[in-house]
Amino acid sequence: xxxxxxxxxxxxxxxxxxxxxxxxxxxxxxxxxxxxxxxxxxxxxxxxxxxxxxxxxxxxxxxxxxxxxxxxxxxxxxxxxxxxxxxxxxxxxxxxxxxxxxxxxxxxxxxxxxxxxxxxxxxxxxxxxxxxxxxxxxxxxxxxxx
Length: 146
Known about the structure:
Elements: H1 2-7, H2 20-28, H3 38-48, E1 77-82, E2 87-98, E3 101-109, E4 119-126, E5 132-134, H4 142-145
Helix pairs in contact: 2-3
Organism: Pedobacter alluvionis
Protein name: Peptidoglycan-binding protein
């Protein structure tokens, strides 16, 4: 989580999914500057920690069935479902849980929690607002072993 924490405060250059750090996140997942980047941010953070996956610019791709978990812990990826889009349309990383709330670190958001924001923020979100959690660190079946 130190890698993600160090990115809090990164801001887009002009508010159009651009700037040096945003470009680095997008480059990692092989998409052009100007693209939405919440999933690119999550993928980049994992890469910096030495993990080859996830590596996708598409937030729904971060929640394959074999990675989904109900155990909420640091570095688990969370996904928010948008009914108007009929899909997961924003994701980020869980830093910690405080009762019914999550403290998260997420890219391409803002103070209001938008999915088209202007930077990397630490947010407070209700657990009830989350559709899926995915664990990309622990092996499949780890939930059953704990």
